[in-house]
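Try it yourself: sequence plus magnesium ion, in.
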Amino acid sequence: MIELQGLTQRFPGDAGDVHALRDVSLSIAQGEVFGIIGRSGAGKSTLVRAINLLNRPTSGRVVVDGRDLTALPSAALREARRDIGMIFQHFNLLSSRTVYQNVALPLELAGKSRQEISDTVLPLLDLVGLSLLKDRYPAQISGGQKQRVGIARALASKPKVLLSDEATSALDPETTRSILELLRKINRELGLTIVMITHQMEVIKQVCDRVAVLDAGCVVEQGRVIDVFLRPQHEVTRAMIGDVISQELPPSVLRRVESRLGNGRDHVYRLAFTGEGVDQPVLAQAIRRYGLDFNILHGQIDEIQGQAFGSLAIMATGDEADVKAAMAYLQEQGVVVEEFDHVV
Ligand SMILES: Nc1ncnc2c1ncn2[C@@H]1O[C@H](COP(=O)(O)OP(=O)(O)O)[C@@H](O)[C@H]1O
Ligand SMILES: [Mg+2]
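Structure, out:
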């Protein structure tokens, strides 16, 4: 649905050019929710604005729904942009217009009749749960409700793609969850392709099918969200997953185990697994098979896209060869095993 090919963006600056995107290539399929995550300044907004050519990249191609936007003359580009809706962190509503009038705005600009406008706007307000608030002004509604207006307005021109740039970053966790649920529902019911830009791994975890990690203008890693959580490759990815699922041992646990490490019998591991690969009690099997003592130090079972995802820190005690064999066995069963070597 969206093909980004070799996007590069340089901005001229006093201290030389800022290289905001470096040869970014991504392929986003029809109907998926695709996340792009990165730290502040990574180039996320520049990238999302390249998809509808609000920023024209210095080089590279943007193909949306089979059309090369970078090659279109401006009138055709304006037309093509109707297929791409966008929502923003700060909602960008007009304060002098009611909820209804904000949603109606793109239709008015497109020259639609009053009747056509109301035929489109009323069902959209119903979809986003704002029918009762249609005559309120932005100052009279909550942040979550404002974002619902933003979503309805973005959907008014019946786009095929919705771009979301930090749309939940100004909202509290509970409101964030309800907005993400709404976006998921729209994705399912309307078959809309959604590109979610965020700096929060929690958002990726809750709503995205696939994710690309952007760092200093480069895509450093991408894949199915569950796979990236299971086997993060890049240090930035690990750090961002750590915000959601701890990758380190808490200091209190560390203090308890520290003195026992390095004796050749006690080893601390982090195990990561999903319900997809690990449906048997593999941990219990490994313990029995190799006659070890296992002590669970710390753990979290979570859910990613309806799939169980577990992360456990364990201490395994036994003969070195048995411990290693047990870990190899777990790996064969699809568990990702990593020794906490920095603890030693
Ligand atoms: N219009 C611009 N002119 C100059 N530099 C810019 C412009 N837009 C973004 N940048 C720079 O490009 C880099 C990436 O910015 P941005 O895409 O906004 O990052 P993010 O959204 O990931 O925080 C930053 O160093 C930023 O200062
Ligand atoms: Mg940004």
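One thing you can check immediately is this: The first strand starts at residue 2 and ends at 11.
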